[in-house]
């Protein structure tokens, strides 16, 4: 019996190790290729480890395109997206969980039903709206259309519903209005879910590609993902430079996820499972 258990444990760790290698190898290959010479990166058979570490590839990539400006734009858009999405999610979740008004459950059902609509379907409508408002090449064009996200509202609503109604009524008896109850009691208690939403919004905003590509025409308004696409035409067949630029864009998200992955998983579990 004990031998069978050891075999199962060994098989489990073998499969986990295999899946980890399959998942992480593309990232390793990207970073290894970014440190190769122009000849080594295309030679056959390929080398797993660079024969000579070409750290100057990163410097060349940074000078060929204004990645510093792209980085600043991405940070600004990500920060604005996090703040606006969290505020909208908190207010909407509180309204759908604690406020009583006619048609509340029906409206929330419509919200949930909208999750079935692919985001690409709304791009044309959003683009026409942004054009009519003359918001092209502005930060608001990159942030406003995606301030409200049904998934984040749903996550917070499920957490808010776990808080006893008696606490809400007790606060009302003590003279606290809805606004004070929300920010003084509800928000601190939902800190884990809110942090999770911040992380998810940040990752999505950092990696966004299609929408920024449509609403930004000026080079100084590009984000990192769009800047990398434009960089491909400048770098041509210099694949080591493309890999260096890709590494520059990818590392911040990877580092953030490594340090914050537990909060992401805990927040999703707490927000998605109603006790």
Automatic annotation (TrEMBL):
GO terms for cellular component: plasma membrane. Pfam families: BPD_transp_1. It is found in: Cell membrane. GO terms for biological process: transmembrane transport. It is a multi-pass membrane protein. Belongs to the binding-protein-dependent transport system permease family. This is Carbohydrate ABC transporter permease. It comes from Zhenhengia yiwuensis.
